[in-house]
Design a protein that fits this description.
This is Type VII secretion protein EssB. Keywords: Membrane, Transmembrane, Transmembrane helix. The chain is an alpha+beta fold and about 500 residues long. The protein contains 24 helices and 10 strands. Helices cover about 65% and strands about 10% of the residues. Helix 4 (about 85-105) runs antiparallel to helix 5. It starts with a strand and ends with a helix.
């Protein structure tokens, strides 16, 4: 393969793998106004945003061809993303923030944060982008139309999202750190907040690396001991394997001893019963013995968590108190409850983590676990209302929960379901949700095709059901013949009923 091509923002980006040249071809929206505006793209190299370029415009078919002279050492993120370390991801993120500030100040340019459009130099820790659009001159894809901050957050969410296999292979404290980082990114209001939290992550890397190396060594030692135990167990089983004659002899001896054994068992039961009574008395249970039991349960739980036996681990963690534990042990315990699908315990121990826990299960689409939570917190009540498709409760809780883009969308559609489109549009505008506002405007115009494009990306039964109901209402009020109305309405009704039951 000599070259590879990608669709990017209405044009075609071609990467020559032999020469490392990259060329972008796009049809201009306004070729007459293009010449002066396109000249500004040459300055992006000096600003450290892009590369040196050569441009050619074909005024007959309004095509623009941009050839990028990619500096040596820069590789597209799409090639190297899977092999990036956390340190490199943080370097890339901080570089993206620096670049994004330019686009916030110069809104005539269009930022396209796509892995094929972002290039990273590992040695120099530098980030640059290829294609930069110009409003009114080049086409703009929907995902690049909104606020720069929203696009940056979406890109970071993808960058720091591990595959399920890699996430489960991480030590518990790293799993929790990753969940908290992605949640902090989602909650960040602007580029300054994003930069601040990423720099804190960067500062904490040396300590995290020490903990990770320590955990890896302990993990290797545990596996080594497990292998030794398995070998010893196999040797013992072989040594003590019984012949047919041995088995017959043991059975005969057992019959002779059966009566005597029954008497002994009765005595043991009495002894155990009396001992249990005395041991249950707190004044006979020395403090150091209680501390030792807590340490034993903590160690056993941590060992099991390291082996990803989370359900067994939490059985030991249930027997200890978190009040005097260090941060690392606390994270291991909380992450074990998370992986054992016992979020209720985490919420009871650390109520401040409620939003993080709920968002974790939303991201992995485990709504059954959210359903089972005790509705003690507005966030839980809100998410359970979405699962139950209870629009009134969703709207009533809108001022009591932290609002991310997803929740804003759910609230606006709940308002739509309550036949208050005007209120839904006002809410979307107030929250600066441009894509949501545009979707609601399409619904207002009965342009359901465009509206479904947006809704289908969300994979939400709540949103889809509201859309179907809106479409059904439109069909019923239309001037179509009754037979045609029935024909169009029946499949939609079936889908609505199915969405309500699921």
């Amino acid at each position: 393969m000599k070259s590879i091509s990608y669709d990017l923002n209405g044009g075609l980006l071609t990467h020559n793998l032999q020469s490392n040249e990259m060329t972008y071809v796009v049809s201009l929206l306004d070729s007459e106004a293009a010449d002066d505006a396109l000249f500004d793209l040459f300055d992006l190299y000096d600003l450290g945003i892009s590369f040196n370029i050569e441009m050619e415009t074909n005024h007959e078919n309004q095509d623009l061809s941009v050839k990028y002279q990619v500096d040596q050492g820069y590789l597209p993120l799409s090639f190297i993303k899977d092999g990036l370390t956390l340190e490199q991801k943080l370097d890339i993120s901080l570089g993206i923030i620096d670049i994004s500030r330019f686009f916030e100040k110069n809104s005539q340019f269009v930022l396209a944060l796509d892995p094929v459009n972002i290039l990273f130099h590992k040695e120099e820790k530098q980030v640059r982008i290829l294609y930069v659009g110009i409003r009114g001159i080049m086409p703009i894809a929907k995902e690049h139309e909104g606020l720069v901050n929203d696009q940056v957050k979406k890109f970071f969410e993808s960058l720091f999202q591990y595959t399920d296999r890699i996430f489960k292979s991480l030590p518990p404290h790293e799993q929790m750190a990753n969940i908290q980082l992605r949640q902090s990114i989602e909650n960040a209001k602007n580029l300054d907040e994003l930069e601040s939290l990423l720099r804190k992550e960067q500062e904490g890397l040396p300590n995290r690396m020490e903990r990770l190396i320590k955990w890896q060594k302990e993990e290797e030692e545990r596996k080594k001991q497990e292998r030794k135990k398995a070998v010893r167990k196999k040797a013992i089983q072989k040594k003590h394997s019984l012949s047919k004659e041995d088995v017959i002899k043991i059975v005969n001896n057992y019959r002779k001893r059966k009566l005597r054994l029954n008497i002994m068992l009765g005595v043991i039961a009495i002894i155990v019963g009396v001992t249990s009574f005395f041991l249950s008395q707190k004044y006979l249970f020395p403090t150091n013995q209680m501390d030792q039991q807590m340490e034993d349960n903590l160690k056993k739980g941590k060992d099991l968590a390291a082996l990803q036996k989370y359900e067994e681990a939490v059985q030991h963690f249930n027997k200890i108190k978190l009040t005097n534990l260090g941060k690392e042990d606390t994270q291991i315990i909380l992450t074990s409850y998370l992986n054992a699908k016992q979020p209720q315990k985490i919420i009871e121990l650390e109520p401040s983590l409620t939003n993080d826990i709920i968002n974790f299960y939303i991201k992995i689409k485990d709504f059954d676990t959210i359903k089972k939570l005790k509705p003690q917190h507005p966030i839980i009540q809100f998410e359970q209302a979405i699962i139950k498709q209870d629009e009134k409760t969703v709207i009533s809780l809108k001022d009591q929960v932290p609002l991310d883009d997803r929740r804003k969308m759910m609230i606006a559609f709940a308002m739509l379901a309550e036949n208050d489109l005007k209120k839904a549009l006002g809410f979307a505008k107030e929250q600066k949700q441009q894509a949501l506002e545009e979707t609601l405007s399409n619904i207002e115009k009965n342009d359901f095709g465009k509206a479904y494009e947006y809704v289908n990306k969300q994979s939400s039964k709540f949103l889809t059901r509201i859309m179907k109901e809106r479409e059904l209402d439109y069909i019923r009020k239309s001037t179509l013949a009754d037979s045609e109305k029935k024909k169009k309405a029946e499949p939609i009704l079936k889908e609505i009923e199915k969405l309500k039951k699921d």
